[in-house]
């Protein structure tokens, strides 16, 4: 007598997807938090140097992050490409090699011009109307931080491979170790401990560069030594490149990079406008944005989960599985940001105290402004989470061009002009800038979600386009 086959019901399938997403998302989120902690640690050290150093460092940090985000978006095409490839056939060694190889090439090609631009950061800041003294001080940080870009992008490529393999544990271990290296080196070099010279802002940048080199070197060693990854021979024939394959990656990655950059530049534009308003506004904005950057790592992690899980399901032609994977990540990401909003509202001083001494008289103006900015930041937490995860869901379907246009509309046609108008024409100052941010993010969140609903509804009728 044969045993009856058991087909999982809808509830069991949703629970199974929830478990898979949490299992993959936990290490990815913690890795994101570990990575943002590198620059967050630097900001904390700068805050201890004083409000002027914090304001100067935030200018360079924002400019560096703008280039880093674009570059990271470009190499992030590795994730959906690998997910779809491995969804079709797990042991697809040759195609995996090609994707990783061209990911490394992309990292190199984008870093070289970025280094040239970042080296001339002072001229860029002056063109943007920043105070000459603050601009000159800020580049002492940039000139040691910018060299972190290439090893960091190499780390992102290898991290993408491990994530697509649904084995993100090693990346978490490496990132946590890098936090310790960055924190210790920063403490030694910024403040001149244990007999070392006090390098101030330059010491913070140098510590992050050393930490980034460690991250890439450590992951390289792991994929070369662990039998689960070594069989893919990722570094074999590393110099055999194909323009056709490179363009295929860029056709997918450029819209991702532009989307990332459009969002990042909105916040950078806010930094520039805050710099025009004054150093207190700029320092308070830097604190609020750094706190937001930390909370954003959770929906960003679920965005990465969505790209991988949706991509794997699309690769094996499982439209229902792709829809389940997308909505589970969406619910988890948006749900967390709702909790983050409550913390921003009810415990702002606890968060601000990580960056500034609350009892120092000269910090009071910055503290009051930071409280106001965090209250407004709470308003866009849910929108920020929704747009981040929805974009990741669409990337799993290789849908990157229309989301890029939606980001352009929401951030730059609506968000930035609204913030500028309220800040300078209606004399609302920093509060007006933050209202503009809330407006832009909310519009993009709605449009991205509607795009996913439409795209996912079509999955059962036709296979997702590979390079749309």
TrEMBL record:
The chain crosses the membrane at residues 28-46, 66-87, 99-119, 139-158, 170-190, 202-224, 249-270, 282-306, 327-346, 366-383, 404-426, 432-453. It comes from the Bacteria. InterPro entries: MATE_fam, MATE_MdtK, MdtK-like. Pfam families: MatE (PF01554). It is a multi-pass membrane protein. Signal peptide: none annotated. This is Multidrug-efflux transporter. It comes from Alcaligenes aquatilis.
